[in-house]
Amino acid sequence: MHLMSAKRSRLVIIDFQARLMPAIHDGPRLVANAGKLVAAAKLLEVPIVMTEQNPAGLGATVPELAEAASAITKMSFDACAAPGFIEAISGDEDLILCGCEAHVCFGQTALSLLENKRRVFVVQDAVGSRVPESKEVSLRRLQRHGAEVVTTEMVVFEWLRTAEHPQFRAALALVK
């Protein structure tokens, strides 16, 4: 495995949707961490891809994240089956994943990406489920299949690599 690099990463935001989030355990903290990832990605020019599961039923992306990217609408739980998703993540970048629900859309997408030999980093403090047990089981399963489990701060500081980075102070302010 290797350290994450801003030049070699793509942030993937899965289904942080308005009608779903009130049911997600610790939802506000997860959205806040996803917001930190988005801000760091924009600061460090990391591309962002975002999905919405059945937005007619689950609503649009939460306002805090809605401006991050144009959402790819999907009905399949696995985003890899959604039109336009595979094209949006084409290349060989590391995929930094955050989103909901850990054991359904998020989990199926991550497993498909791993099956397709992509490097997947799961940001555990920006991943949610309605029930904590579902998240825990999903993260263990994903890790067994090759996903690296990381935190928001790990992503930001690995993207920076050094306190001499020109965006260090701005990025540091995001995670403090």
From TrEMBL:
Q: Which Gene3D superfamilies does this one have?
A: Isochorismatase-like
Stretches of the chain forming a coiled coil according to its record: none
Residue span, Isochorismatase-like domain: 11-153
Q: Which protein are we looking at? A: Isochorismatase family protein
| Upper lineage | Bacteria, Pseudomonadati, Pseudomonadota, Alphaproteobacteria, Hyphomicrobiales
